[in-house]
Every structure is written in structure tokens, then in C-alpha cells.
Amino acid sequence: MAVTIVVAGKGGVGKTAVAALLIESLSKKGVVLAIDADPSTNLNLALGLPLGETVGKAREDITEAIQKGTLSPTVSKQDVLDMKIREALVESNKIDLLAMGRPEGPGCYCAANHMLRLTIDRLAKSYDYTVIDSEAGMEHISRQTTRDVDVLIIVSDVTIRGIMAAARMKELIKELRTKVGKIVLVVNRSRDGLPQEIQDAIQKYGLELIGVIPEDPYIGELDMKGSPLIELPGESPLRRGVEDIITKLGL
Amino acid sequence: MAGIFPVDVGPQYEGEVIRKADLYVEFGGPNVRSKFELVTLKGLDEVDNEKIEVIGPDMKDMQEGGSYPLGLMIDVAGEKLEKDMEPVLERRIHLYANYIEGLYHMNQRDDIWVRISKDSYNKGLNSLEEIGKILMFLFTSELDVIEKISITFVTDEKKVEELITKAREIYKARDERARGLREEDVEEFYSCALCQSFAPTHICIATPERVANCGAISWFDGRAAYKLDPEGPVQEVKKGDCLDPIRGEYSGCNELAAVKSMGTYNRVYLHSAFEHPHTSCGCFQAIWFYIPEVDAFGLVHRDFAGPTVVGVPFSTMAADTSGGRQVEGFLGMALEYLRSPKFLQADGGIRRCVWMPKEIKEKYRDAIPEDLFDKIATEEDVKNVDELVEFLNRVEHPWVKGEVELPT
Predict the structure, then answer these.
(1) Going by CATH, does the domain composed of A3-249 fall within 3.40.1790.10?
(2) Given this model, what pLDDT does residue B71 score?
(3) What is the DSSP string of B299-366?
(4) Chain A residues near residue B229 by CB distance under 8 angstroms
């Protein structure tokens, strides 16, 4: 059965790094559809994959074709979009990557986004895992990708602001139509465990802490060389932390 | 189906994705230029029944992991078959091909993409002829109107290129025919409730002569969407009785409007901006607006930032038009609707148009009668209604001159 996991968190907390390691670890158990829903589209770099066309580009293209009236009147736009999305998919051995790209510009995208939801939902069914790296939280996930999420992993750094952002994200979900099975918190880049203030904040906001990942000294080295993060060694704290989370979540 | 064919066949394989890592060969797709499929109706004496032919290399001769050209041509014959059914039968290729275990088929016409998995290849689906046998079985067992069928796979690139030119002419002719489809020719319209979250009393109706307000859902899209997701936001509407052929009033649409607007509206005119105009969501591409001083209409689209001839920009007008209300004289619409033969026919149609942005005028030149083209003012010709009146008199606009007769 396909499992959908969203990795969210405010910018700069190492969310993409967590997502990339999660994707890589899960790809040892099954095939993974990785969706980069962060407009800066750098999950591909962390995974060491090329960057394909983005879903945003496909949506713009079809919206433009509608404006210009250049599409065949009988060919369904859903089919055209299906094809464009498959073309945008970057395929590797166990991981396929789809980049969402920039959010939509002005104008109406109701129909295009609805068609996208159908396309991506049907595509995701064929994978053992779908992992979505999402900057802003759940808003555009609800708008244009899968409808139900099994696990939402919110990544925070060791700051009160980070924990508060995580709490807000959790609150927001209630207002969306997306159903979320489980919401957990990961605190990334800790130096010496968790300060009392952070522990108190986590408790105050009712967040379920599933992992604390220490600052990873190996990341800087890889970044310097421009190597993908999935080359992190076995003893890397991030790698070990993510593997521990997978075990705890029973994925 | 086990035993007859090397692989299993059935609807359970629809939606199966063949990933690159599992792929034996693929035909068409982004790496291949020459690709198409075509169903042609022929005479009973013209079809060599149950013949399967492969022109060019077959799968056995191909390199694992490779991408190859493909022309898939199916000829059918049958007493009850009609030329109009060709596109419908052609669409069945997509459906039936996806029934085959370890085969996926995308899209249609000259943009197809077919993948065959390693697993299925190893099970014996190692020749296009085998695929042909399965397709033939499905076509004839599911559609008994087909009396004779033959299938040709062309993988020789040059030959595909030759054939594709002819296929494109046929696609084009079909599109022309589709554009000629009338409301009178069909029993079902399609409704779309995608925008109901913005406009709870709004329901969009797509007919062969009226594309939904956003321009994205044509009647054909509606039909496809409804088949794909019968519980989804796009639903079939039985058009019912035609109560007013000029204004485009149908009993089925009235009933739907009453239900979907929770009783706010119980009548809707599909082709008039007066009395009971179609509701407007917030997603329309353009607004058709009444200009009382000249008793005529202007048209403004979403991308036009400046003020219109009546002094307000699109955004201001949109606020008054949207929200799922029937606002007499203000109609949210798709630009493609300009090309409809029924375009607001009850009000005088395009001949009652006196102003539109230059961009639209150029893009939709084909929808405007030649003698009218220079008589519709743009933002470059006039800045306000006074100037508009002067312009219309000077160019002798047919509506202002009283030359446009309303249909009765």
C-alpha cells in the first residue's frame, strides 16, 4: 500500500536534508516518488538527480494553450497534463522525482490544479512511498497534490520560533481538507540535546517529538564539494537520526 | 484470461505505471519524434480480417531500455459503424492497451507513449504481434459492432514519418468536425462545480457550444472528466427539453441551477446576458459588460490591467460580476466562447460588441466578422464612453446604425 509522507518546516531548518535521507533510506525498502514542493527546487541536488521540467511549467503551458485556444477541441486536457507530468518525472533506479516548481501566477488555476491532483494521485498509487518536501507546510499540498497524508514530519531547529512555526503548521492542517494520519516533530541540528525551554515549548504546543538529530559535521564537507547529501557516511548523525525515525514510525 | 495470452489482461492493470528501471522497451514518449495511432473505418471488403502486421523491427530485435518510433494503425469495418465513431474507437486503444499486464499507454494521436515491462517481456509479451492479438481480442469482444479488424504496427522511422502526415490531416479534419458539434446534436451537457468553494451558488455548464467560464473545461473535457471520475466535480446533465432555442434555455439546466444554487435561481439562459444570464464564479477569463449609453457590450479579459472604456478596470468589474450570482448585463465567460456560433445570440452576439482590448481583438480575429473588425473600438481608439459614441458613429458600427436584427 502506498504511504504518503510530508516533510515540512520553515526555511533553513534542514528540511530538505531530512527529506533526502528519508527518501534514500526508504528506497532500500521500495520504490519512492519524491515530490519537491519547495519552489526553490533543490531536492534533486540533495538526491544527486538532474532537474526535470516542473509541474508549474506544465500548468503554465496548458493554461497558456487554453488562453490561445491552440489545443485540439477533442483531446482532453487531463490527458495532455498526464503526459506532461510523466515527461517531467525524473526517473532513477528506485527513486522518481517530480518538482512542483513555482506556485501559480495570477489568474484561475482551479481546473488545472484539480487536473493535477488527479494526475499526481493516480501516479503516486504505483509507488510504495511518496515523500513530499514542502516548504510552506500543507497549503499547496492540499491544493495540488495528494489528498491524504499518512505522516507529516515537521522539522524544526533548536529555537522557540521553530517550535512555534511547527505548532502553527499543525493547527493549520485542521482547516484543510487534507486528512493527516500522524503528525510528528523532528528537532534538527541540536548541539547538546534539547534545552529545557524547547522541551517545555514542545509540551505546551502538544507536539509529538519523534527524533532529535545532532548537528551533522559531514554535511558541510559534502556541500563544499557540491556532492549530494545521500553520500553521507553510515555514521553521519543525520543518516542515523533519519533511520531511527523510520524505525519509530514503522515505515 | 490466463492461458490464451502470455500475460494477464483486465481492468485491474489500468493506471499501472512502468518505471524506467522496470522497462524493457518504450515506444514514443519524449525521446521519440515519430509516433502516432489511428483508427480508420473501412468497407467490409477492404479489411483483411484478423491480420496483424509489423512493419520494421519487432521487440525481439530491439535493445533493452531503448526508445522506438511507433505508428499503430487499426482498420475496422462493420455494418453499424459510422465515421464519427473513429475517434471514440481510437480512444479505446488507450483503455484496452492499459488492460494489458506490464504495458502502459499514455495520451493519444501523435503524442503517444507506450512502455512494456521487463517482467511481461520475459513472460512472453515479446512481440508487437502478441500485443496486437490482445488488442484485437478486446476490441472485438467488447464492441460487437466491429465485424472486421486488422492491426498494423509500424516501427520503421521513415515509414512512420510518412504516415504521420496523413494522420495529422485526419486529426485536423476531426477537430473541424468537433468544432461543428451543436447543442442540438447531443443529449448531455456537463456541469462543473470546481469553483463552488468560491461561489456556492455557481454551477458552470459546458455544452458543445459553450465552454466553461474558465476556458479549461470544454464539453469534450467534461465528458472525459466525468468518465474518469463519476463522483467528481464534473457531472453529466441531461439537457432535457429545449425551452428557448435562441436564449439557450433547457429544462435540465434550469433544474440543475435550482438544485446547485439552493433555490436562488431556477432559470438560466446559456446564450444571453439579460434576464437569467449564466452565473459567474471568480474564475472567468473575461467579462462581457453592458454599456447603457450605447445599449451595447464591451469585453475585457483578466490580463488587461488598464481601465476599460467605462472607466473601471477588470478587477473592479470582476468583484461585481463574480460570486455565483446572475448579474444582468455582466457575464463572466471564456474567451473561446467568442468562437461559438451561439455566442450570446439572443442579444445580437459579437455584432453587439463595441469595445475590447486590442490584444483580444488580435488573438480572436477569426471570431470577428471581417466587416465588423475595424468597427470595434480598442483602448487605442477611445478612452471613455463619449469618445466611444463618437467613434461608433464615425465608423458606422452596425449595431448603432440599427442594422443588427435580433433572432426571434
Answers:
(1) no
(2) 98
(3) EEETT--SB-TTS-BHHHHHHHH-SSB-BTTEEEE-GGGGG-TTTTGGGTGGGGEEE--HHHHHHTGG
(4) 118
